[in-house]
Amino acid sequence: MKLDAKALGIGAGITAAIVAAVCRLAAAIAPGATAAFFGYLLHLDLSAIARTPTWGSFFAGVIVWGVGTGLVFALGGWLYNRIAQGERGVPAENRPASIRPAEHRA
Predict the structure, then answer these.
(1) Environment class of residue 40 by beta-carbon count within 10 Å: exposed (0-12), middle (13-18) or buried (19+)?
(2) Is 50 helix (H, G, I), strand (E, B) or coil?
(3) Where are the domains of the chain?
(4) Contact 65, 17 (CB under 8 A)
């Protein structure tokens, strides 16, 4: 199965941007509760880390998380396709039976 690395990257980037926006919104509405929640998840005391949210930091966070995640997932999809294709670009069905994936064995 070949992945569309570009589509994977775009989908992951959009998802990460939405999650970053929701997270930032939660931190703006209830900073103490949000810090406590993530502190429990990370096993850290985040109460001393206080940030004043601005529109600039909001948009920068959403863009950086969206683009960064999109690039990482696109690279992952590209690597998956290269690995799944096999050594020197030989498709799985054309490889020797001893190294062919089970779904391509006769």
Answers:
(1) exposed
(2) coil
(3) 5-95
(4) yes
Nearest to 91 by CA among 106, 81, 79: 81
User: What number of other Cβ atoms are within 10 A of residue 72's Cβ?
Assistant: 14
% of the chain exceeding 90 in pLDDT: 49
Cβ atoms of residues 27 and 53 within 8 Å = yes
The Cα–Cα gap between 85 and 2 comes to 8
Instruction: Tell me if 49 sits within 8 A of 57, measured CB to CB.
Output: no
Here the tokens at position 88 are: 């020197």
Q: What is the mean pLDDT of residues 76-105?
A: 71
Give the C-alpha separation, 5 to 75, whole Å.
Answer: 7
| pTM for the predicted model, two decimal places | 0.70
In the three-class reduction of DSSP (H, G, I as helix; E, B as strand; rest coil), residue 51 is classed as coil
In whole angstroms, give the CA distance from residue 71 to residue 77.
10
For residues 79 and 61, what is the distance between their CA atoms, to the nearest angstrom? 27
